[in-house]
Amino acid sequence: MLRAGIVGLPNVGKSTLFNALTAQTAAFAANYPFATIEPNVGVVAVPDERLEPLARLVKTEKIVPATVEFLDIAGLVRGASKGEGLGNQFLANIRETDTVVQVVRCFEDEAVVHVEGSVDPLRDIETIQIELALADMATAERRREKAQKSAKSGDKTARSEIAVLEKLQPVLEQGKPARTVVLTDDERTIARSFFLLTMKPTIFAANVDEATLANPSDNIHVKAVQQVATSEGAECVVICAQLEAELVDLPPEERVAYLKELGVNSSGVDRLIKSAYYLLGLMSFLTAGEKEVRAWTIPQGTRAQQAAGEIHTDIERGFIRAEIVAYDDLLRTGSNVAAREQGLTRLEGKDYIMQEGDIVNFRFNV
């Protein structure tokens, strides 16, 4: 399961966002640094508007969405890479994640203490990035020393590692993330084996007040975060964590109505979950029957036989064909039988590349 770590300075809204994401109040949100020490963990459903209509069509009440695991990691401070503020423990928690959601405070509120004394998104982002880069520098240096020893004996893999490290280390020394370095596909594969913190795909969550939601581009703090995200080729999601956490108690239709009154078309939480899911190149295929409707998570580019293995290894081993119909075609025709009669259902072999939203029935024989 994809693991996304929520990081940032203390008191920027991480735990409040976690509460909103998980639709519960498990995270202890408090107005002082280090209210969170051990990471809170929550499994979150990936919003998928296709599942309910599909469940009504096949007459089932059981829906199983794709999921993402979010970790609410305690706030980082200056010196975290050297152990300040329990930094070593927090950095270890980040290392266990697949992707990072960096929460950046973009609202003014004297009642909420800022650990640096003022709201400055660029400074806050830089603080986090420098601490992660410093931790990565130590990791890279250890890896380089090991590779240099192996390279002396003619190890070609070690030489390739050194070549990649020579590209990464100068950037880390500037306090910049390793993910901004231009690498070939082969070099990127090598770089991932170093498990660098700043190599992880990152989403910037600009945490604003309710008044900012309708026109976030008017907020100078949001603009600053968006500029950083653009420069790194990252995504920026504007969200009001406090509002989203409060909306958790309302029925879904009332949440949508309230957001529309504020001039917002969709929930920031939903956009953030989807961004975390697709950031790593994941996608969903669907299965639908009287037993359940389910979204299955696979990497983009997965072939049909491997996708079958997500359901059961026996189905992958005994794979014969994948019977596939597009979601829109099935909803329009009203049934699998009608879709077949209209020639909208097709049979694909084991090498078929799965597409987002394919509704699949795997034929197999064990």
Short description:
The protein is α/β, with parallel strands linked by helices and 366 residues long. The chain is built from 14 helices and 12 strands. Strand 6, helix 7 (220-232) and strand 7 form a beta-alpha-beta unit.
Total beta-strand segments? 12
Order of helices and strands: EHEHEEHEHHHEHEHHHEEHHEHHEE
Sketch the major β-sheet: 6 strands, mixed
Q: What amount of the residues lies in strands?
A: 15-25%
Backbone structural class? alpha/beta
State the oligomer: single chain
Gyration radius, to the nearest Å?
Answer: 23 Å
Q: Provide the low-confidence segments as ranges.
A: 25-37
> How far is the N terminus from the C terminus?
27 Å
Structure in words:
The chain is α/β, with parallel strands linked by helices and 366 residues long. The protein has 14 helices and twelve strands. α7 links the parallel β6 (202-207) and β7 (235-239). The two termini are 27 Å apart. Residues 25-37 have low confidence and may be disordered.
Protein topology:
Elements: E1 3-7, H1 14-22, E2 40-45, H2 51-58, E3 63-64, E4 67-72, H3 87-95, E5 99-105, H4 121-151, H5 156-173, H6 185-192, E6 202-207, H7 220-232, E7 235-239, H8 241-247, H9 252-261, H10 268-279, E8 282-288, E9 293-299, H11 304-311, H12 313-317, E10 319-325, H13 327-333, H14 336-341, E11 346-348, E12 359-364
Parallel strand pairs: 1-4, 1-5, 3-9, 5-6, 6-7
Antiparallel strand pairs: 2-4, 8-9, 10-11, 10-12
Helix pairs in contact: 1-8, 4-5, 5-6
